[in-house]
Specification:
CATH topology of the largest domain: Rossmann fold
Helix content: 40-55%
Structural class: alpha/beta
CATH class of the largest domain: Alpha Beta
CATH architecture of the largest domain: 3-Layer(aba) Sandwich
Distance between the termini: 67 Å
CATH superfamily of the largest domain: Resolvase, N-terminal catalytic domain
Number of domains: 2
Largest sheet: 5 strands, mixed
Number of strands: 7
Strand order of the largest sheet: 2-1-3-4-5
Shape: elongated
Radius of gyration: 26 Å
Length: about 240
Amino acid sequence: MRVVGYLRVSSATQIDAWGLDRQESAIRAYARTHDHRIVAWERDEGVSGTIEGVDRPGLSAAIKRIGHGVEAILIADLDRFARKLTVQEAALAVVWKAGGRVLTATSGEVREDDPDDPSRTLIRQVMGAVIEFEKRQSVKRMRDGMIEKAKAGKKATGSYSYGWTGTGKGRERDAGPLPAEQQAVDRILALRAAGTSYRVICGVLGDEGFRPRRAERWLPMTVRRIAEREAVRAG
């Protein structure tokens, strides 16, 4: 069977049981075992499984290939297709209406509804509901963890300011000093304590080889923010 492989991760940096590499490996292995030919790949990176199929460029492109040299969409697992039951059912209906099939590397074909076998639909929808429930539980655990971290005075969300980086794992993860940048922070504070202007400090930092995290050069406003933030941190 000629198939299109479909990959999805909910964030561009997602690393979990179904990261892009793991998905692709599972799809290739299934295709090899069942003598399917992968003629194309489509993907959605940084796209939630709760978003409708029409709003996912990769999934839409995969569906459009049905009937044009492609007979089925092959995915690693049903949760890559959708993590919300209503979205899953809508996407499946579109594929089936186009005359296509949906295959998963974990459990084979997702069978189309059959009026003579209502249990088929029930089982699929129960599986979809379980996937949605597990996603909601995962989100709740993450939210609860952030709340607990915030209560403990630890950094719970967002990026880390200049001079700092994430340390530890899970609920113990917090902001920790980044040695290379801390040298620049110490220099800023020392120069400021000596009465040096922010503009002059910018020149000194550049001459001494210190670089800001993202910009090409130091700006007085950036230096001022770092100095004020560190003063607050020090109490």
